[in-house]
Give the backbone structure.
Amino acid sequence: MLPIDQEKFEKIKTLAKENYQKIGKIFCPYLKQDIQFNSEGFDHLLSKSWNKGRSTVSTVEQYTRLRLLSIAFDCF
């Protein structure tokens, strides 16, 4: 995979975080409860657990997740 330009990565990360925080909470009909969109959930998108990246190519993987998240925002 090609490396991701750090400036491009930071730009998409900032935009994704701003939009993620705007969601707040939504009702999930499957779980029959509200789902909170908070900093803990956003951090989970970027890492498997606290202070650990998702993989050795974590920047590429994180960039992909953040880009896909922008598509999901169109649903809200």
Observations:
- Residues 23 and 66 are 15 Å apart (CA to CA).
- Residues 6-73 form one domain.
